[in-house]
Fold:
Amino acid sequence: MKILFAAPDRDLLECYKQLLETGLGETVTAFDGTQVLALLATEDFDILILDRKIPRVDHKVITERANAKNVPVVVLTDEPAGARRREEESLPNGRMSYPFTFAEIKKTILDTLEKRGTEERKGQVSEDE
Structure:
């Protein structure tokens, strides 16, 4: 699995990079939106974990670009879980509110990828059909 983790806090990035690589797989980090867009353009990722307050490029633009490449997005926010904004509901594939534990983010990543895989298989026709 290849994860792109984008957040403006470099200490947070390093911490989660080490944890995610130990628990899930290769993790690439970015601390601003221009880095995220450049990485999405040049590399393939299984999932993008994106802090909503990423500087230099609006998180909605990044989410749209990731969705165009069929990369699921989990948005990290400091808003409470019930404060979801209507315009954002259709963009990310998942959402997490700070603070969260490593176990919670790992579960969210795995659940998002499992859900994405289930949705992709729904449209496929088996050879027996």
The longest strand covers residues 2-6. The chain has a mean pLDDT of 87. The two ends are 31 Å apart (CA to CA). Strands lie at 2-6, 26-30, 47-51, 73-77, 94-97.
